[in-house]
Amino acid sequence: MIKSIEEMYIWQMSRSLVNDVYKMMSVCKDYGFKDQIQRAVVSIMNNIAEGLDSGSTARFIFHLKVSRGSCAEVSSMLYLCEDFNLCDKATRIELQNKIKHISSGCLKIINGYKRE
Fold it and tell me: How far apart are CA 108 and CA 99, in angstroms?
């Protein structure tokens, strides 16, 4: 049983992803775009935390699903980061791989709860 967010691999990985995105976006002058991707990436991490502490399995699953949606949003925006020369292809792929691990980790937890 998970007792704290710090124990969760997907939360740890999402925290790392937030730091990666914030560093990458530090040079971005398009503040609307910058704000959108930063809010979305923080949403991944915070929804995992909020769901864990929600007090119910249904709320936890709901927040993991929201986190997965934010994963899709950030993954999509990373293509634009590459298009806008905020990152190169290798960096985009690396960050998208982190996102895939986080999203699949959320899905594994969701599916695990559905079987109980």
Answer: 14
Tally of CB atoms within 10 A around 17 = 21
Task: Determine the CATH number of domain 5-115.
Answer: 1.20.1440.60
Give the domain ranges of the chain: 5-115
Q: What are the φ/ψ torsions at residue 81 (nearest 5 degrees)?
A: -60, -40
The b-or-e profile of 25-54 (16+ CB within 10 A means b, else e) is beebeeeebbeebbebbbbbbbbbbbbbee
pLDDT tens string 69-95: 999 999 999 999 999 999 999 999 999
For residue 111, give every residue at least 6 positions away whose Cβ sits within 8 Å of its Cβ, in sequence order, or none: none
pTM: 0.93
